Amino acid sequence: MRSDGHQSLMIRIAPALAAISLACGVEPAPAEIERPNLVLILVDDLGWNDVGFNGDEFYETPHLDRLAREGMIFANAYTSGPNCAPTRASLISGMYPPRHMVYTPGGKSKIDPRKMRLWVPVQQRFWERTGVTDPIPDAFEVRQALDPSVVSIAEVLKQAGYATARLGKWHVGPDKQGFDLSSSDGKPGTEKNHYNDPNVSFDLTDVSIDFIKENRHQPFFLYLSHWDVHGPLVARRNLVAKYEEKLASWTKNENPYNPTYAAMVEAVDTSVGGIVKALEEFSLAEKTLVIFSSDNGGTRVSINQPLRGVKGSLYEGGVRAPTCMRWSGVIAAGTKSLTPITSVDFLPTFAELAGVSLPAGQPVDGESFAPLLRGRPALDDRAIFWHYPLYLAGRATPASAIRKGDWKLIEFFEDGRLELYNTATDISEATNLAEAMPAKASALHQELIAWRDATDAVEPREPNPYYSETREPVP
Asked: Which helix (H) or strand (E) holds 294?
């Protein structure tokens, strides 16, 4: 798996790994507290249906399928945002986006403002396209990064002596948020994009395995955040050729599979296989909870059907993530949970598993799903929420949503439209029941409004004076 540059990479990183092992030496945890190692593998832009354990047959994901087969599939796992930054910020902080105000990379809408019916923050480079020389008018506050004062999931786990590392994509700001090792490519102190590197998944896996090896005698938290399968589509040529050949004779369905994307999916799957193999070789399988998920729904290169929508949308295709978990000896093999979970649930879950308290003075919006891992009921009556007050070109307009039980309601701010779906009987969100079931729609809408009030969620309502149907330069 190791690429040619890995030897020099490990010369640079080895001192940091050794320092983590020494710095995290603490008194042993009480025998009655079972503190599992925690491995969270997050993929970038992987669609819910792009894995074998959710039914796809073209993409080859044997290691993921094994992880799911030996553990639990979470069929209703959601991200806290329809794109990467809000999901990652919520995962790290345990707070919904209205509290941390991180909604998108760069903080503001990446769209020509003449396409926006409502006035929301817009990036400078898109504002300049209008031809208007005035400064960008104020809309409302958004942020590009988590505030360093936020108590992170890593800092929570440090209470129990966990060694912590995050490797790969970050996208929540320059602060390390308490991680011992924090880098985009395994090199301490660096943060750069690796979207064009066909070897990045393999290299990140090698560094992750070294981190596991160095810290195998103490509890550790590894947050491996892949750059794959985000565009531009780049993969090892031999893998692309493999899927080009496979697609040429493919007859099972007419889905427009992309061989390069399929190769990127396989790279991620291989990474999971390498991590799991290392855990087993170090006799850590029964001591480690392994979680696999994605930061948002798939893009248009994904095969999102039967889900509606893509990344950026609050429909299922934008926020439902392929998710499975394995913890040998604790999670019953071959099981499936239909209980909805979401990004903000990871911090309280990890805190419960580590036997530590939640941050004092900081809201924690999530709830622990730890009982579900042991086959016990949990989270049956709660609602989960989304709020995206920006535009994402061609995919999303400002909206909020709530899911409670099988019911999901979306409110679109441009026209106040409400859409109500039963996600159990209508996974494709094809039939809007808002008019047919006004009482249900109203009850969920009121709960959504109350949640926005409680989290101080900004609601874009002001018409955009620069909106233009023809999108000609504004005089």
From this structure: strand 288-294
